[in-house]
Amino acid sequence: MARPDPVPASGVAARALIRTAAAPGGGTVLETMRSDPPLTLRRTGPERVHLVSTGAGPLGGDRLALDVDVAAGTSLEVRSVGATLVLPGAVPGHSVMVVRARVAEGAALRFSPEPTVLAAGCDHRLVVRLSLAPGATVFWREEIVFGRHGERPGRCHTRIDVTVAGRPLLRQDLLVGDAAVDGSPAVYGDARCVGSTLLAGPGFAPPAPGDGKDERVAALGDGWAALPLAGPGVLASAVADDAVRLRERLERAEEAALHMTV
């Protein structure tokens, strides 16, 4: 499947930045927090930032970008105040949200915003580019709701590319709102929500040949799965008919993934 095109026709352009630095004597300092409405950042803890939407959308034609840099030995949690509602706009073209995150040696990032809701008529691209140094740890959750109550979803194409020390760990595409995919029992079936969480870091590395440790085995449940990757990571996934049940199932998959640490 082709990579999402990051350039729509026109609309609002906004870029926000979060950058950490090591504090004297240890700990984390939020060195840079640069907001660009509708992407507004608020510090809500020593190592925590919330995204606050200060405008509607994303709307058709919008180009939004968030850059996250987690310095060596520091920790950062990024959350959002509420769900993101993706809407069609008066401007022709699709909307785009690009998230670029770089996590340095020994750093930890937890990225867990509230769900993205695809309103009827929207056309959205979500692109995630996540780069991990050796020894970095990441918890990265994404949840998508297929439209508001009683409506069909718009169209959305998501792409996540994850590398560890420059080597690919995960390449995943997700397409919602396409007649060839929606409703297929091999994809979503009758589900109205889908979510995934990447747990990655040294503790999730597969056992080395001959070290006497058991191979990691996928864990499966009702509407969820935890799948070990070829590198230092586990992908937890879930589908459900509403956002509450999706979160419950995804948390079960995340818990199963945590049991795969070495």
Question: Summed up, what is this model?
Answer:
The protein is built from 1 helix and 18 strands. By secondary structure, the chain is mainly β.
Topology:
Layout: E1 13-22, E2 28-34, E3 39-45, E4 48-53, E5 63-70, E6 75-80, E7 84-86, E8 95-103, E9 108-111, E10 116-118, E11 123-132, E12 137-145, E13 155-164, E14 167-176, E15 193-200, E16 219-221, E17 224-228, E18 233-240, H1 243-258
Parallel strand pairs: 1-5, 4-6, 5-8, 6-9, 7-10, 8-11, 9-12, 10-12, 11-13
Antiparallel strand pairs: 1-2, 3-4, 12-15, 13-14, 15-18, 16-17, 17-18
Describe the structure.
By secondary structure, the chain is mainly β. 6% of the residues lie in helices and 48% in strands. The protein has one helix at 243-258; strands spanning 13-22, 28-34, 39-45, 48-53, 63-70, 75-80, 84-86, 95-103, 108-111, 116-118, 123-132, 137-145, 155-164, 167-176, 193-200, 219-221, 224-228, 233-240. The strands form 2 sheets. Strands 3, 4, 6, 7, 9, 10, 12, 15, 16, 17 and 18 form an 11-stranded mixed beta sheet that branches. The chain has a 7-stranded mixed beta sheet with strand order 2-1-5-8-11-13-14, with no helix packed on it. The model has no long low-confidence stretch (mean pLDDT 90).
